Amino acid sequence: MIRSMTGFGDAANEKDGTHYAVELRSLNNKYFKASIRLPEQLAGLEAELETHLRNQVNRGSFTFTIKLRLSDAKAASRVNDAALLTYVDHLKTIKDQIKDNDSVHIDLTQLLALPGVLQPAEDEETLMAKSRPILIDLLDQVVIKMNQMRDAEGKALAEDLLKHRDFILERIEIIKTRASLVIDEYHDRLKTRIDQLMARAELNIGEQDLIKEIAVYADRSDISEEISRTTGHLEQLEQIIGRKDEEPVGRTLDFLAQELLREANTIASKSNDADISRAIVEVKSAIDRIKEQVQNVE
Predict the structure, then answer these.
(1) Full-prediction pTM beyond 0.85?
(2) Domain count, the chain
(3) Which of 7, 34, 98, 108 could be 149's S-S partner, Cβ–Cβ 3.0 to 4.6 Å?
(4) Is residue 147 part of a domain?
(5) How many CB atoms lie within 10 A of CB 63?
């Protein structure tokens, strides 16, 4: 089954006063590449989430973004009483050492900015433990949504690839028909030229020599093997596109496109016929479009 590498999915959930919103985007890439964007409190889950994502996709560039919003009660920081009292006791000691200490005032609100005084209402380990199953479930949801979009785009890609495949087949049939006539035409041209030269006594050549010359030309310009291999590649292309399993086929299609181009170049180099040359130029153009399209196939 053809699946595009471009897709998007989003999902959200709220539990125990914590709201989670996630997005997953995928773009083209020859290999697997993931970017996991997490709030600082959940940074410890990055490796686990990337592994879970890797197990569900094959290749592409994936960006998984997580946004976290805590309820007012959850978001409120907790005052570390012990730390605050330690700062206050230390400041009182310093104040007692100042001669004119009546002008010195301790502002408790300023002390809240000191390290260790304000702490999250929920520590990171507790938040990660609570968030882990929720984020795994949300990741599964967005992968399904993303794949639905990638499958829909893959269907359009498959139709376009088959269109180019049919176009190439039509041109190959023209080339095949034309190739069978090229040798006869070369024979007629060569014989006419030899007859003209012999009539002017400029050349004396036997029938055997003419046959050898035709045979050499026929061997040098024979493209039957290239046509056969090209047809075989196009049949394989259709079979791969029509597969129903979910195995990735992008790299196989890319290889087939390269092989098609190789055969087309060989045909072009062997052909001295204008009609075949025009047809093979159209074939190579269609192959280039196939190569472009399969870059987006997973």
Answers:
(1) no
(2) 3
(3) 7
(4) yes
(5) 15
